[in-house]
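Annotators were shown the component list below and the corresponding predicted structure, then asked to write short factual statements about the assembly.
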Amino acid sequence: MSFTANAIWRRDALAIDTTITPPSGWVDLNLRELWDYRELLYFFVWRDLKVRYKQTAIGAVWAILQPFLTMVVFSLFFGRLAHMPSNGLPYPIFYYSALLPWIYFAGALQNATNTMVEHQRMITKVYFPRLLLPMAAVTTGLVDFAIGFVVFFGMLLFYGISPGVPILLLPFFLLLAVLTALGVGLWLSALNAIYRDVRYVAPFLIQFWMFASPVAYPSTLVPERWRWLYGLNPMAGVIESFRWCLTGRGQPPNLLLAASTGMVLVILMGGVAYFQRMEGTIADVV
Amino acid sequence: MSDIVIGAENLGKRYRIGERERCVTLRDLLARAASAPARLFAPRKPSSSEGWRATGNRANGNHPHFWALKEVSLDIRQGEVVGLVGRNGAGKTTLLKILSRITRPTIGRAHIHGRVGSLLEVGTGFHHELTGRENTFLSGAILGMSKAEIKRKFDEIVAFAELDKFIDTPVKHYSSGMYIRLAFAVAAHLEPEILFVDEVLAVGDASFQKKCLGKMGQVSREGRTILFVSHNMAAIKTLCSRAVLMRDGAVTASGAVADVVDNYLLGTASGAHAREWRDPTAAPGNQNVLISYIRVIPPEGEPVITIDTGAWIEIGFDNLRKNINLDCTVYVMNSEGVIIFASGHRISSDSDSRCGFHDVTGRIPGHLLNAGRYSVDVVFGKDQRWVLFRIDSVVSFEVENTATGRGSNMSVFPGVIRPLLSWRHSFKEESSLVKQP
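Structure shown to annotators:
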């Protein structure tokens, strides 16, 4: 028994019984408790949004500039100069549709990685399910994503492209991106609490990861028989799916998506398990 | 069903020495990487069946450990206000952290029955970029209040903090006093059934401290259960119905507040208030004098040195120099190092001191020292000019606060000393300045 799992919330009796025990080694995700703390999750997200662009001159415009300028650079160098194949799409559309999920993912992962260290004081002074912190970090990024998404619609109009029915699948693909960021973020944030090296490793990891994902190039460059292996990078499936459903061009990346979805679940479950193991004593080491 | 709301059984917490200070590096990670996958999901040692004694000081081979908490068992009933006392490092905060679930014990278990609020610092979760209003909601939510609850109490919180004009100013522009007032106001409006409080009343100015103590008292009268850590014995005595003494990670006494507080202060005295040397080779001194004891103790019948009681200073020493004009002087310094006074006694009026044991006792009168911690230097001199031997900060003592002079006001008066003046007062109906029409 442990308090994370066995705080027995007896709503009817208006009383809460908690049992405090040493860490048991078993994964005990207490979804009920997480649900009871949902308001705190909301407050964490709200705070991050409030604080994010405080004391910046152009504020939330950064949420537009970041993907947009990256798109311009990619279109120029990878597109115009390197003549990267783009499945017949205009380069700006080709790159922006991939940068939307990628920039969300990179930001969310970076923020999630730093949560435990950034909230060190809070973690050592008050109890709440620590899982809320990385969860809030990956949720906050969705607002920037939404802003960037609006710009994308403007671009679609400009190029006269209509995405069609597949766009209805977008929420699912976005969820995959969120869960990937959360899954990896759980690993990295818990590791970061103990090994501060993670803070320096994460930017590299994210950079390498981008080149291992079809952001700057289409996944069709990867030989067909290695495609499933490539799909073990969950972001590969996510990005190709984004491109497909946002532009309506090409075939749905079925194989890639299946491999990615499976991998996301593995990473997420592993992340939750590892994080839960760390959670009970994270206040002692962070 | 019993009315025990906090039940702790054999709680123990082991830390690896240096765990908190040292950041583990990637090198260690790589070194352990080989065995990591297997260990990652394996249960941690020691299991709850083995006691803290079983694992000794160098458990698991290479890392020295220490037990911050050893087999602590504690039952607290519904509505009790329990004061947790003990020296720094006795394990009080560790116990609070385990009971409030911030960290988990290494062994043992505890049951908590009721909604818990913990107040281990003032301003938990405050973000300096946010305004007072925003921080009220944020901190309230982190401490466990619902949004609706905070909304309902918002005006009350702002009024308590006395900063209605500045509530929409970012807290980074607040003075430290304003910051603490707001932070405490939020915390004070928590309404959990069980409240853990760690030495947070020691901040803020005197009048605000008084307000906080009042709020605490009010909370305790509402039948909530409070576990309260403080070094302020006066506050413990005022607020608590029971006290628990911890020493070196274990509970060494529990019961009536007065008894436990005495126990604690007397226990501290052997280390800090008073020192004795039995072994002449270890005793401080030189070829002139050899000190056997220096004590600062409350007057007979008083358990504690307070503002009212004053204290005795006793110095016992052997004089080794025959026929000199010897004197013994004490310097009393406050915690800021300011010498409050120096006072001495001439052992001999002429150059005719005798070799042998001398005991010098001085009375520090009541209503002289303000509440606080003082340290004592002792100087032996010759002809009131030459220093024969001096020993600095040899003992230290605490003067407890009392309410004398201000009714029930328990706050510490400002000022280096706290004399009790005798006042006279007369009254006339007509003004001395304004002529009555």
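Statements collected:
1. Chain B touches chain A through 53 residues (CB under 8 Å).
2. Residues 155 and 164 of chain B are 9 Å apart (CA to CA).
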